[in-house]
Specification:
The chain has 337 residues and is α/β, with parallel strands linked by helices. It folds into three domains: 143 residues, Response regulator (Rossmann fold), CATH 3.40.50.2300; 103 residues, Beta-Lactamase (2-Layer Sandwich), CATH 3.30.450.20; 73 residues, Winged helix-like DNA-binding domain superfamily/Winged helix DNA-binding domain (Arc Repressor Mutant, subunit A, Orthogonal Bundle). 51% of the residues lie in helices and 18% in strands. A five-stranded parallel beta sheet has the order 2-1-3-4-5, with helices on both faces. A five-stranded antiparallel beta sheet has the order 7-6-10-9-8, with helices on both faces. α10 packs across α11, α11 packs across α14 and α12 crosses α13. The longest helix is centred in the middle third of the chain and has 30 residues.
Length: 337
């Protein structure tokens, strides 16, 4: 135990999950340390609240066993400070307490603990509880890494609880896109997205098939939603039979045709507004619809379209659309209407 206490720098050289024991009683520390060491864990010890905060910040243990009652800064305050820091907030905390009154146990959980064990400490019980929470922490960390990877490649992602439509998590890019397409939603999933999710969750769970994507359009921008994976609550979902109790990760990606519009303008020597009008003609919109989209009058759209016909050397909407579509597909072979 002394070797572990001497240098935090040695921790990286030792195998197993890293456990920080925080207790001011040497006998408790010794019993736990020996049991954990024999089970293959790397053990770090702190005997005060202040030292615990320092060691947790420096070493970032995988789990913390925290004594609730210590002189000076007690375990409740230590837990609150750890959870308030972004660097240590993810670390599961298991309280060790001799206090069995309900209010003390509730206080431990309110302070940020995921579990508690009562004194006198039973090492086998502690080990069993730790394994459960370490497994949960690894799954949560894996989800975070998945989300970060998606963001890094230009995707946005959200996690939705199907039962009440609450947005449990969203990346900054996802929040911005949802606001653009659906207005400020706060913590609620946009109704069309939630309806699509609820419609396809049963098949996604039972048949393990990827459902059709949902699309939302905003002018020349298009946002796709793909159901990626179930993030948790599988046991509850199985009980419910329809996945309504679980959270689902949805991956979003925006495709903008603004580059297409710009390319049409350059190729046909159109003004920016003429290129926009031609784009919507290609998309099959009539003058009234184009006017609504562009915030102009139908008469103005008609004038722009007449100039487009002249520059393209055609006389009809169908001919203009066909010429533009052929040029677009030559420049962007994978573009779809």
């Amino acid at each position: 135990m002394n070797e572990v206490l001497k240098s935090d720098g040695l921790l990286a050289l030792q195998g197993g999950d890293l456990v920080l024991i925080v207790d001011d009683m040497p006998d408790n520390v010794r019993v736990l340390h020996d049991a954990l060491d024999e089970s293959g864990y790397t053990v770090l010890v702190a005997t005060s609240g202040e030292t615990a905060l320092q060691r947790a910040t420096q070493a970032l243990p995988d789990i913390i066993l925290l004594d609730a009652m210590m002189p000076g800064m007690d375990g409740f305050e230590v837990a609150r400070r750890l959870k308030a820091s972004t660097a240590t907030a993810h670390i599961p905390i298991v309280f060790m307490t001799g206090l069995t009154e309900t209010e003390h146990l509730v206080a431990a959980l309110d302070a940020g603990g995921v579990d508690y064990v009562t004194k006198p400490i039973k090492p086998k019980e502690v080990l069993a509880r730790m394994q459960v929470h370490l497994r949960g922490a690894r799954q949560a960390q894996g989800a975070v890494q998945t989300r970060r990877a998606l963001d890094a490649f230009g995707y946005a992602s959200i996690t939705v609880r199907v039962s009440d439509g609450r947005l449990m998590w969203q990346t900054p890019l996802a929040r911005e896109l949802l606001s653009d397409y659906f207005g400020a939603m706060g913590e609620l999933t946009p109704a069309p997205v939630l309806a699509w999710l609820r419609r396809h969750v049963p098949a996604a769970r039972e048949q393990q098939i990827e459902p059709p994507r949902f699309y939302a359009e905003l002018g020349a921008r298009r946002l796709s939603f793909a159901l990626h994976q179930q993030m948790g609550g599988e046991e509850e979902a199985e009980d419910a039979g329809d996945g309504e109790s679980s959270d689902w990760l949805i991956v979003m990606r925006e495709v903008s045709d603004l580059a297409i519009i710009e390319a049409m303008g350059l190729n046909f020597k159109l003004t920016a507004r003429e290129a926009e009008v031609l784009y919507w003609v290609v998309k099959g919109k009539i003058n009234r619809d184009i006017a609504d989209i562009l915030g102009a009058s139908p008469a103005t759209v008609k004038k722009h379209l007449e100039r487009v016909f002249s520059k393209l050397g055609v006389e009809t909407r169908t001919s203009a659309a066909a010429m533009a579509l052929n040029r677009i597909r030559a420049l962007h072979p994978h573009w779809e209407l």
